[in-house]
Amino acid sequence: MAKISVAKMSLPGTLRFILGRFWLNLKASYEYRASFWSQIVFMILNNAFLLWFWKLFFGQFGQVGNWRLDDVYLLDAMSAIAFGLSNVFAGSAMNLAGTIGDGELDYYIGLPAPTLLHATITKIQVSAIGDLIFGFGLLWMVFGAKPDGALHIAVALASSIPAAVVFTAVIVIFSSLAFFTGETR
What we know:
The protein has helices at about 10-30, 35-60, 70-90, 95-100, 105-110, 115-120, 125-145, 150-175, 180. By secondary structure, it is an all-alpha fold.
């Protein structure tokens, strides 16, 4: 009976692989500089418009339940950071169902890197860099002037990392349904 070998990488090797793909993707995206920067800037502006909406909303109603404006800002910042991390480092996860449905996953199966990891980190969503910048800036805006602000920022950032992992995992799980449903578009 033939033995099937599975690509295994050590943790340092996996991290080097992820960072290497990230830099390659970043360089490829930066080739079109105007598009690169406009995607980032317009994502920041898009998120800032949402903040303006919340400022108007809470200016009118003051407090909704136990939620104040700073609470919504914190939630928005952590969500932007988690979404940004997920789409900067695993930008292809959003297109995984299409990759599976189109039969393009076969390309990754023959490569020595782990198939799912390689298929999810192949591309970067440039606009997600704008989400990251916006999230960091909003965290600084909410906590920067407070005496224990650095601790709050560190906790928020530490909490955003597992949130990004869960977000990516949910996308991969739902995208994997394409194995059973076939064409997803």
